[in-house]
TrEMBL record, chains A, B:
Protein name (record): NAD-dependent epimerase/dehydratase
InterPro entries registered for this protein in UniProt: DenD, Epimerase_deHydtase, NAD(P)-bd_dom_sf
Membrane-spanning parts: none
Lineage: Bacteria, Pseudomonadati, Pseudomonadota, Alphaproteobacteria, Hyphomicrobiales
One matching Pfam family: Epimerase
Keyword Cytoplasm: no
GO molecular-function terms, A-Z: oxidoreductase activity
Keyword terms: Carbohydrate metabolism, NADP
């Protein structure tokens, strides 16, 4: 099997590559080749018997998608994207990458006239307030960011292109991936990870919102698990509704902190400093809280059961256990 | 006030123009000028003191939207579109007109840097089976046609562009407009109108589906009423969810025929010939049935109360009473 990954230099992309090289097979087939694409040069980890190639460029540029599809990959993970904050401040870039980039890729597959599985990472940012207590699968998406709008539009394309038989698409709406490894970033959601990550490194972290804020999380490990499951699932089981809300752990920030205290002790949680920030809270208040994710669970997508598990996954995967 | 109408040569467009020239005012302001655009040359009815100009061309062509926005119309009715059947058989045309045409228009307004009201005719084709008994406003749109997909994508753009303050958009999801005047067309939904229209003209009509099929209708007169209401509504009342499912009359085909018999007698309904067509039925089975349309009703959008009223509106407006 030949695999193509867009956005392969990103956080989820790198973890997916590592997992695929370890598994050496996907959806019951042996992996022969993995092509990685990103606007930032992706690393090319070595693995005996698997060809790993890296391509660098703008996915939305003329001809870029066609070149990536030329070798007719059987499995395409479309992860490339501009994050929420950037899509909001840079209008043109967001539409160019998240909408036009996806459409160009989908059209290149359509015109290549074969039928690969396409797994697309959408986001729970397709949803906008007000919400019911628990958001059901059939709740309408009304995004409150340009990022969420672009993801929704790409979802709609994925669904229509699948219905028409151009490819076999599965869209997975990821919850916030937490604990995000690496440096703090400027995303409004950054604090959900930094209040765990920084204290575990003995550093202070700032909490800009009240402890009562509810949000849904899954670990990077679960995100990769979702991608693998989406790659292997029988399309007939998915049916015509190709975009699935992924499961996760819905908790208050207070519960996140209690979990951190259980796992790492109060010396660690003391490093969280509450500095209320009205601007951040205003954004976060419009974010979805809890999801039912019934269809995804029934289709075999699994996430952690508790925030303790999410913290332990971070300690195992990033801090050497 | 200066008004722009795209798709002005179409069925709804022509009726809207007639109504505006009769009212001579819109949203509490006197109408000074109406610009009509269509790929088919629109008629230019005369009215003292109102400038009516016609422009002909492809809305999606480079520069077309910019030219239409040059005079900064205060009110834009975006009705241009390729119908469902055509968007399904001609993939490129559907995406070009319904998606790219809308995006080009919206971008021309964005770049002109002013803030008109934009009223966009979406469709209940954004919804796809399976449905609950009555479809609530918060039900998720999962289109089962390329047309519905394109309308959904344009809705998402309208919403985001409104949120960002580029314009003040209201999307109205029209139910099937019935009785559609004029010649029978090839739309799969055509029979809903032809079983009323043709018999009233003393001609036979074919019913391809069982009488138990449920569908929601509003008259062309109501469609124009929705557009006028959307033009005048206070955007703050609409809030962030800019796309509204319009009310209509949800009836079985059997109830349509009973209404026709009440209004016009059994000599007329005898002209309906039942010729079951599996292909048509297969399409129609995935169409939405009944809508709650609560938000639209609360916001003052009104349709007929019964199918008898819809037939009487047709007789008054098209058959001289
Ligand atoms: N991490 C999360 O919490 C989360 C939540 C919901 C959805 N997602 C989605 O999952 C996917 C992966 O997330 P991530 O956390 O790894 O994001 P990331 O930002 O780490 O990775 C995205 C990658 O896309 C690349 N990219 C950006 N513009 C590009 C272009 N024009 N051409 C080619 N590549 C380009 C970036 O360089 C980056 O490496 C993204 O599509 C993201 O929107 C992530
Ligand atoms: N009539 C219905 O039952 C119904 C239901 C739901 C939604 N709608 C929507 O309402 C709107 C008006 O409906 P209608 O019944 O008057 O449709 P119509 O087909 O009679 O009118 C649409 C007009 O758009 C024009 N058009 C097509 N391509 C164009 C292009 N590239 N550039 C410029 N103009 C172009 C056509 O020439 C036509 O005159 C459409 O957007 C339609 O999708 C209609």
């Amino acid at each position: 099997m030949r695999i193509l990954i867009t956005g392969a230099a990103g956080m989820v992309g790198r973890k997916l590559v590592a997992r695929l090289l370890q598994d050496r097979q996907l959806a019951g087939r042996t992996i022969a080749a993995i092509d990685l694409h990103d606007i930032v040069a992706p690393e090319t980890p070595q693995a005996d018997g698997i060809s790993v190639r890296a391509f660098t460029g703008d996915l939305a540029a003329a001809g870029a998608s066609e070149a990536l599809i030329a070798d007719r990959p059987d499995m395409i993970f479309h992860l490339a994207g501009v994050v929420s904050g950037e899509a909001e401040t840079n209008f043109d870039l967001g539409y160019r990458v998240n909408l036009d980039g996806s459409r160009t890729l989908f059209d290149a597959i359509r015109l290549a006239n074969y039928k690969p599985r396409v797994v697309f990472t959408s986001s729970i940012a397709v949803f906008g307030a007000p919400f019911p207590e628990v958001i059901p699968d059939e709740f309408h998406p009304t995004p409150m960011t340009s990022y969420g709008t672009q993801k929704l539009m790409a979802e709609a394309l994925l669904s229509d292109y699948t219905r028409r038989g151009f490819f076999d698409g599965v869209g997975i709406r990821l919850p916030t991936i937490c604990v995000r490894p690496g440096k703090p970033n400027k995303a409004a959601s950054g604090f959900f990870s930094s209040i765990i990550r920084e204290p575990l490194h003995g550093q202070e972290a700032v909490l800009p919102v009240p402890r009562s804020v509810v949000h849904t999380h899954a670990s990077p490990r679960s995100a990769v698990g979702f991608l693998i499951r989406a790659a292997g699932i029988d399309g007939a089981l998915v049916g015509p509704r190709r975009n699935l809300t992924m499961p996760g752990v819905g908790v208050t920030v207070g519960e996140q902190i209690e979990a951190l205290e259980r796992v790492a002790g109060s010396a660690v949680t003391k490093l969280i400093r509450e500095v209320p920030d009205a601007a951040t809270w205003a954004i976060v208040q419009n974010w979805p809280t809890r999801f039912e994710a019934r269809r995804a669970r029934e289709l075999g997508f699994t996430a952690e059961q508790s925030f303790d598990e999410i913290i332990r996954a971070h300690i195992e995967d990033e801090l050497g256990g």
